[in-house]
Structure formats: structure tokens, C-alpha cells
Design a protein that fits this description.
alpha+beta, Peroxisomal Thiolase, Chain A, domain 1, nine-stranded mixed sheet, 12 helices, 17 strands, binds 3-hydroxy-3-methylglutaryl-coenzyme A, HMG_CoA_synthase_prok, Hydroxymethylglutaryl-CoA synthase, acyltransferase, EC 2.3.3.10
Length: about 400
């Protein structure tokens, strides 16, 4: 039985910060951000959005009435959870009106959470072929104003429906994993901003990629030329380029090198526009690649997922005949209609985020054009509503 990705969608804020402006405000050469980091814009998430509303806004695009009845499992990947106990999946189920027989959980392992969900969904669908699984990767990447990580901030959510006989991608059953207890990036319970050893994390990313890629090739007996595209978790898009270069630099086959680089450029287009999405990042890159419509049925894509702390996985997927019909330009057109904010406006929005607190709080949800918003908190309960 073929199992894989049937539908995908993406949501982020209606506001963005041009990276050139951020670089100038931090007394850096804009090319360091635009080329050295590989980011053009950074999503500025409003205080009326959190991982639940971002996920609901992404999933709304693919969860129609039929899906609401059929979905039987919701897997919510995030490292920006809104509660230490209750899972984001339950909020999502309720906001979208998904049938109450569906079960749901939240999955956490830094940026790896959604990939963990993909593998769980594979097993679940193998046992229950009629199943339709809703997965989301939803996060807000916050490092802090003026920090080294600031230029890699971002946020948003990717939603996926997995099923048997999918319309977009058939996921392979082989994969290679690597898990090591390291402190490259973490976020203690008292913090909303990540702590990170940036250079160390970037070096470990490459090590994890090379090791899992090599293990995958060894396990499957495949060579690199089996892949039409290699795509990556993209904390900043230059990171993926560095990882790709690490395995193509010694190749004799110039055509393959060129073609892998060309597909990589296609795969980083959307990520350049948004910044780090944490759990959703690899899948935004996948969406970006599919949107370029430069693949044909049967092409094999290699996917590298990395979650700090750290866990890495390399797996592959094959493009399904007719996938083009299921990726529409309208789906990502909203990115061109976003509003640019100044550095001062971004800093004001950043500081206005609700902190863990007992007092009631009201967000500026009236200004937010998103369908689902966080209105605030009353008696320590979050108030969500569909307003648009
Ligand atoms: P930095 O130290 O300010 O940057 O921050 P840099 O000095 O390393 O420069 C970056 C690049 O720009 C370099 O290129 C420079 O040469 C180049 P590279 O050597 O890397 O190829 N450069 C220029 N290029 C063109 N024109 C110029 C110019 N000037 C310099 N004028 C750092 C970089 C990544 C350390 C920082 O942004 C950071 O700490 N980010 C957060 C951590 C991170 O993203 N780590 C990535 C791997 S970990 C991961 O992926 C997991 C994660 O998503 C979390 C999770 O799993 O939950 C983060």
C-alpha cells in the first residue's frame, strides 16, 4: 500500500520585517543577512497568534467538511506549546470542528516534532488503511532583540493530511536516525526565548546530516544520483546550502551537482520569505519545491529533519503522478500581500507578547486579519475565536 502526503497547506503572519532593514539597525552589512544567512524577510508574528491559532489557520485551508468527519488522528508537532499539560491537538480539533472520535496528541523534540508525527502516521495508516491523519508543525522562533539568533527568527505553521494512495508524495519505509544528548539549542521552562550555541548547532546540523545520509545510502544500497532533490530543515536557508555542499563538493557528476543545487534553490524560496518555522521548516521547504513544479512523477526527494538536542532523520519520498494539480498558486499568494513593518514596530510587537502570567490579558486581535485569533487570557485560560 502507498502511504504519504495527500494535502499540504501553510500559514504565517500578515506582517514581515525586511532583513535588509534589520541588518542596518544592527550595524551589519545587509549581505550578511541576505546572502550569508540566506534570508530576505522575517515573519513578524502578532501577539494575537500562538502555536494553536497558527496551526488552525494553516489547517483550515485543507480541512473541509469531508475531512472533519474522516480524520481519526491529529498529531501536533510544536516546541511552542501553550500549556504544560493539555495538548494543542485538542484545541485544534475543537476550533476546526473535527469529529470527537478522533484522537490527538502533541509531539515535542525541538524542530523534529512533525517528522516524528509523519513516521507515526505511516504506522497508523498501515494498520488502518481508511485513516486520514491531520499533522501540523506550528511554532514561533524567538531568540530575542539584538541576539545573534535574531536574524533567524520567524514563525508559522504547515498542515498536512496523510493517507493511503496520496495525491502529492509517497513516503518511503526506510529511514536513518541519529540521536545524541547535546546542548546546542534549548529553552528552559522559565523562558519564551531559546538559548543557543549558534556555531556549535550549525556544525552539529551538518554532522547529523552527513551521518544519517550515509547510513540511509548504506541501508538502501542507493547512491546520491537516485535523488532528484535533497531538502532540509532550514533554520536559515544558508544552513541547508552548507549541508548540501558537504555531500556534493567531491562529486564528479557536474550535471547532478547543478541539478541538486537548482532544486535546492527552489526548495528554499518560501523559507527565505518567512524565517525559521521550527517544526514546520522542512515541510515549508517541501511545499516550496512542489510549488516550483519542476518535478515529475517518480522523482525521489531526500528529506533531512533536524531537531536540536538533538535528533536527526533522513528519509525519502516519491512524487506522485499529477501532483501539480494539488499545489495551487493561490495557496501561497497571501505572502505577496503581507505588510512590511519597521524595526521599531517589530520590536514593539515582539515585546507585547503575553508572558506566562496569572493576570488577565487582552491581545490586539482586532488588527489581525487571520481567521483564528487568540483574544487573550481570562482566569488563566486562553480564549480563542474564529473572527474572520
Ligand atoms: P553570526 O555568528 O552572526 O553569523 O550568526 P556568522 O558570523 O557565522 O556569519 C554567517 C554567514 O554570513 C557566514 O557564512 C559569513 O561568512 C557570512 P558561512 O561561513 O556560514 O558560510 N557573511 C557574509 N556573507 C555575505 N556578505 C557579507 C557577509 N558577512 C558575513 N557581507 C548564527 C549565525 C547561525 C550563529 C546565528 O544566527 C544563530 O545563532 N542562529 C540560531 C541557531 C541556528 O539557527 N542554528 C542552526 C542549526 S540548529 C537547528 O537547525 C535547530 C533549530 O531550528 C532549533 C530546533 O531544532 O528547535 C535552530
Amino acid at each position: 500500500m502507498k502511504i504519504g502526503i495527500d494535502k499540504m497547506s501553510f500559514f504565517t503572519s500578515d506582517l514581515y520585517l525586511p532583513m535588509e532593514d534589520l541588518a542596518k539597525a544592527r550595524n551589519e552589512d545587509p549581505n550578511k543577512y541576505l546572502i550569508g544567512i540566506g534570508q530576505s524577510k522575517q515573519a513578524v508574528i502578532r501577539n494575537s497568534q500562538d502555536s494553536v491559532t497558527l496551526a488552525a489557520n494553516a489547517a483550515l485551508k485543507i480541512v473541509d467538511d469531508n475531512e472533519k468527519e474522516k480524520i481519526d488522528l491529529i498529531l501536533f508537532g510544536t516546541e511552542s506549546g501553550v500549556d504544560n499539560s493539555k495538548s494543542g491537538a485538542i484545541y485544534l480539533q475543537s476550533l476546526l470542528g473535527i469529529n470527537s472520535s478522533a484522537s490527538g496528541v502533541e509531539l515535542k523534540q525541538a524542530c523534529f516534532g512533525l517528522t516524528a508525527g509523519i513516521q507515526m502516521a505511516m504506522g497508523h495508516i498501515a494498520l488502518h488503511p481508511e485513516s486520514r491523519v491531520l499533522l501540523v508543525g506550528s511554532d514561533i522562533a524567538r531568540y530575542g532583540i539584538g541576539t545573534l539568533g535574531e536574524k533567524t527568527q520567524g514563525g508559522g505553521a504547515v498542515a498536512i493530511i496523510m493517507s493511503a494512495n496520496p495525491h502529492l508524495l509517497e513516503i518511503g519505509t526506510q529511514s536513518a536516525h541519529l540521536t545524541k544528548d547535546i546542548m546546542d539549542f534549548w529553552r528552559p521552562l522559565n523562558r519564551s526565548e531559546a538559548l543557543v550555541d549558534g556555531k556549535y548547532s550549525s556544525a552539529e546540523f551538518i554532522n547529523f546530516f552527513k551521518e544519517t545520509f550515509e547510513n540511509y545510502l548504506e541501508k538502501t544500497g542507493e547512491e546520491i544520483d537516485k535523488f532528484t532533490a535533497l531538502i532540509f530543515h532550514l533554520p536559515y536557508t544558508k544552513m541547508g546550502l552548507k549541508a548540501l555542499r558537504s555531500v556534493i563538493e567531491d562529486l564528479d557528476n557536474d550535471d547532478l551537482k547543478e541539478s541538486l543545487l537548482e532544486h535546492f534553490e527552489e526548495s528554499r524560496y518560501l523559507n527565505r520569505e518567512v524565517g525559521n518555522l521550527y517544526t514546520g521548516s522542512l515541510y515549508l521547504s517541501l511545499l516550496s519545491l512542489l510549488h516550483a513544479r519542476n518535478l515529475k512523477a517518480g522523482d525521489q526527494i531526500g528529506l533531512f529533519s533536524y531537531g536540536s538536542g538533538a535528533e536527526g532523520e533522513f528519509y525519502s519520498a516519491k512524487v506522485v503522478e499529477g501532483y501539480e494539480k494539488y499545489v495551487t498558486d493561490e495557496e501561497i499568494a497571501f505572502l505577496d500581500q503581507r505588510t512590511s513593518v519597521s524595526v521599531a514596530e517589530y520590536e514593539q510587537i515582539y515585546r507585547s507578547f503575553m508572558r506566562p502570567q496569572t493576570a488577565d490579558y487582552r491581545t490586539e486581535f482586532e488588527n489581525d486579519p487571520a481567521p483564528f485569533v487568540l483574544k487573550g487570557q481570562q482566569q488563566q485560560q486562553r480564549i480563542y475565536e474564529k473572527v474572520n
